[in-house]
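Action item from last week, closing it out:
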Amino acid sequence: MKKHILSAFLFLISLTAFSQNPEYSGRPYLWENKKLSELERAEAQFDTKSKGFGYGGVDILYTVFTDKSDIRFTKEKLPTFVIKVDKGIDPAEAYVILKATVKKKKRSFLVGSYAMGGKAKDTGEPKIKTVYKKLKDGIYEVTLPSDTSTGEYAFVPNSTEGMSMGNKIKITCFGID
Protein backbone atom coordinates (compact mmCIF):
# COMPACT_ATOMS: atom_id res chain seq x y z
CA MET A 1 0.00 0.00 0.00
CA LYS A 2 2.85 2.38 0.85
CA LYS A 3 4.37 1.74 -2.60
CA HIS A 4 1.08 2.67 -4.29
CA ILE A 5 0.74 5.87 -2.26
CA LEU A 6 4.37 6.79 -2.98
CA SER A 7 3.91 6.05 -6.70
CA ALA A 8 0.74 8.15 -6.83
CA PHE A 9 2.48 10.99 -4.98
CA LEU A 10 5.46 10.95 -7.36
CA PHE A 11 3.11 10.88 -10.33
CA LEU A 12 1.24 13.94 -9.05
CA ILE A 13 4.51 15.78 -8.44
CA SER A 14 5.63 15.10 -12.01
CA LEU A 15 2.31 16.43 -13.32
CA THR A 16 2.60 19.67 -11.36
CA ALA A 17 6.36 20.19 -11.84
CA PHE A 18 5.50 22.61 -14.59
CA SER A 19 2.12 23.87 -13.51
CA GLN A 20 2.13 27.35 -15.05
CA ASN A 21 0.96 27.64 -18.63
CA PRO A 22 2.10 30.53 -20.82
CA GLU A 23 -0.88 32.73 -21.61
CA TYR A 24 -0.09 33.33 -25.28
CA SER A 25 1.06 30.91 -27.94
CA GLY A 26 4.19 32.01 -29.81
CA ARG A 27 5.34 34.41 -27.11
CA PRO A 28 8.44 33.48 -25.08
CA TYR A 29 8.42 33.95 -21.30
CA LEU A 30 11.23 34.00 -18.76
CA TRP A 31 11.24 30.83 -16.61
CA GLU A 32 12.83 31.62 -13.24
CA ASN A 33 12.17 30.28 -9.73
CA LYS A 34 9.29 28.17 -11.08
CA LYS A 35 7.51 31.33 -12.26
CA LEU A 36 6.83 32.74 -15.70
CA SER A 37 7.57 36.42 -16.34
CA GLU A 38 7.00 38.52 -19.43
CA LEU A 39 9.87 39.85 -21.51
CA GLU A 40 10.18 43.04 -23.56
CA ARG A 41 7.82 43.05 -26.54
CA ALA A 42 9.23 45.51 -29.05
CA GLU A 43 7.79 46.74 -32.30
CA ALA A 44 10.21 45.88 -35.10
CA GLN A 45 10.02 47.33 -38.58
CA PHE A 46 10.87 45.27 -41.65
CA ASP A 47 13.68 46.96 -43.54
CA THR A 48 16.27 46.34 -46.24
CA LYS A 49 19.78 47.69 -46.53
CA SER A 50 21.57 47.83 -49.88
CA LYS A 51 25.32 47.42 -49.95
CA GLY A 52 27.41 49.12 -52.63
CA PHE A 53 24.39 50.63 -54.40
CA GLY A 54 22.84 47.17 -54.61
CA TYR A 55 25.85 45.58 -56.34
CA GLY A 56 27.05 44.25 -52.99
CA GLY A 57 23.68 42.69 -52.26
CA VAL A 58 20.84 43.40 -49.89
CA ASP A 59 20.40 42.62 -46.18
CA ILE A 60 16.91 41.97 -44.83
CA LEU A 61 16.43 43.24 -41.28
CA TYR A 62 14.00 43.82 -38.47
CA THR A 63 14.83 47.13 -36.79
CA VAL A 64 13.88 48.20 -33.26
CA PHE A 65 14.27 51.94 -32.69
CA THR A 66 15.93 51.74 -29.28
CA ASP A 67 19.49 50.65 -28.64
CA LYS A 68 18.99 48.50 -25.55
CA SER A 69 16.40 46.16 -24.04
CA ASP A 70 15.11 46.89 -20.55
CA ILE A 71 15.25 43.14 -19.79
CA ARG A 72 18.87 42.31 -18.84
CA PHE A 73 20.69 39.13 -17.85
CA THR A 74 24.32 38.38 -17.06
CA LYS A 75 26.60 36.10 -19.04
CA GLU A 76 27.26 34.18 -15.82
CA LYS A 77 23.54 33.47 -15.27
CA LEU A 78 21.96 32.93 -18.67
CA PRO A 79 18.15 32.89 -18.71
CA THR A 80 15.86 29.96 -19.42
CA PHE A 81 12.74 30.63 -21.46
CA VAL A 82 9.45 28.85 -21.99
CA ILE A 83 7.41 29.06 -25.18
CA LYS A 84 3.99 27.68 -26.03
CA VAL A 85 3.33 26.61 -29.62
CA ASP A 86 0.27 25.34 -31.42
CA LYS A 87 -0.18 21.61 -31.97
CA GLY A 88 2.03 20.24 -34.73
CA ILE A 89 4.48 23.18 -34.66
CA ASP A 90 8.18 22.55 -34.07
CA PRO A 91 9.40 25.57 -32.04
CA ALA A 92 12.95 25.16 -33.38
CA GLU A 93 11.63 25.74 -36.91
CA ALA A 94 9.06 28.39 -36.02
CA TYR A 95 11.29 30.75 -33.99
CA VAL A 96 14.90 31.84 -34.06
CA ILE A 97 16.97 33.88 -31.61
CA LEU A 98 19.04 36.53 -33.36
CA LYS A 99 21.83 38.77 -32.10
CA ALA A 100 21.45 42.44 -32.99
CA THR A 101 23.85 44.88 -34.51
CA VAL A 102 23.51 48.12 -32.54
CA LYS A 103 24.17 51.42 -34.34
CA LYS A 104 22.78 54.93 -33.99
CA LYS A 105 20.40 54.02 -31.15
CA LYS A 106 18.83 51.19 -33.19
CA ARG A 107 18.94 47.40 -32.90
CA SER A 108 19.00 45.65 -36.27
CA PHE A 109 18.32 41.91 -36.47
CA LEU A 110 19.60 40.34 -39.70
CA VAL A 111 16.97 37.94 -41.05
CA GLY A 112 18.40 37.24 -44.51
CA SER A 113 20.90 38.41 -47.09
CA TYR A 114 20.96 38.28 -50.88
CA ALA A 115 23.82 38.79 -53.31
CA MET A 116 23.44 40.71 -56.55
CA GLY A 117 21.11 38.73 -58.79
CA GLY A 118 19.02 37.43 -55.90
CA LYS A 119 21.22 34.53 -54.77
CA ALA A 120 20.86 33.88 -51.03
CA LYS A 121 23.90 34.39 -48.78
CA ASP A 122 24.62 32.65 -45.47
CA THR A 123 23.64 34.72 -42.42
CA GLY A 124 24.46 32.03 -39.86
CA GLU A 125 26.50 34.19 -37.49
CA PRO A 126 23.71 36.21 -35.79
CA LYS A 127 21.57 33.07 -35.21
CA ILE A 128 21.90 31.49 -31.78
CA LYS A 129 21.81 27.70 -31.55
CA THR A 130 19.25 27.04 -28.83
CA VAL A 131 18.08 23.81 -27.23
CA TYR A 132 14.34 23.12 -27.04
CA LYS A 133 13.16 20.63 -24.41
CA LYS A 134 9.54 19.49 -24.33
CA LEU A 135 7.95 20.09 -20.91
CA LYS A 136 4.47 18.97 -21.92
CA ASP A 137 2.30 19.06 -25.04
CA GLY A 138 2.88 22.37 -26.81
CA ILE A 139 5.15 23.83 -24.10
CA TYR A 140 8.93 23.91 -24.46
CA GLU A 141 11.88 25.08 -22.40
CA VAL A 142 14.40 27.11 -24.40
CA THR A 143 18.04 27.12 -23.29
CA LEU A 144 20.82 29.32 -24.64
CA PRO A 145 24.28 27.84 -25.25
CA SER A 146 26.81 28.48 -22.47
CA ASP A 147 29.08 30.40 -24.87
CA THR A 148 26.42 33.05 -25.65
CA SER A 149 28.21 36.39 -25.82
CA THR A 150 27.13 39.76 -24.46
CA GLY A 151 24.78 41.78 -26.63
CA GLU A 152 21.19 42.43 -27.63
CA TYR A 153 18.97 39.51 -28.67
CA ALA A 154 15.44 38.80 -29.89
CA PHE A 155 13.10 35.89 -30.50
CA VAL A 156 11.93 36.38 -34.08
CA PRO A 157 9.25 34.37 -35.91
CA ASN A 158 10.85 32.33 -38.66
CA SER A 159 8.26 33.16 -41.32
CA THR A 160 7.82 35.52 -44.22
CA GLU A 161 4.50 36.81 -42.89
CA GLY A 162 4.65 40.57 -42.50
CA MET A 163 7.79 40.93 -44.61
CA SER A 164 6.85 43.98 -46.66
CA MET A 165 8.63 47.31 -46.59
CA GLY A 166 7.53 49.34 -43.59
CA ASN A 167 5.50 46.53 -42.00
CA LYS A 168 5.90 46.07 -38.26
CA ILE A 169 5.76 42.98 -36.08
CA LYS A 170 6.22 42.35 -32.36
CA ILE A 171 9.41 40.57 -31.34
CA THR A 172 10.58 39.53 -27.89
CA CYS A 173 13.86 41.18 -26.83
CA PHE A 174 16.43 40.81 -24.06
CA GLY A 175 20.05 41.75 -23.42
CA ILE A 176 23.05 39.95 -21.96
CA ASP A 177 25.74 41.95 -20.12
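Closing note: Residues 2-16 form the longest helix (15 residues).
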